[in-house]
Design a protein that fits this description.
Number of helices: 6
Largest sheet: none
Shape: globular
Oligomer: single chain
Structural class: mainly alpha
Amino acid sequence: FVFEDERPSSMAAPPPGPPPMTVDRAKVILKDTIQTFALPEHRAQLEAAVAEAQKAPPDQQPMVKMQKLIPLITGIAGPKLQSYGLPNVMIGVMQLQAVAAQDALVAEGVRLLTAASMGSPPSDAQVADYLARLG
């Protein structure tokens, strides 16, 4: 007979993580994600969430804004970031921020995404200018 601790492990190896974040990879992800936030339907959703939060009493507006925006941001950016192997928005942002110190365009893209996530999506002109400089 076989003791339990002598049985071969049937556990599969964990799936490989996302490829390491590089400046070039960050630029591709930022380009795609910023374009997603700039879509008219997403811009309208962000603006509506902020407008709704502004109806709350002033001392509650920041909390209501985050309650409205976090699920919205997760829904907009989550699938896009997951398509690049990033498991969720928080991990994606952390990895992009880690590379931002190495490249001014990546840092600018992170700022644009952060503004969008706070309910202030970049204007069409800002998006066009940023994307043109990304190449």
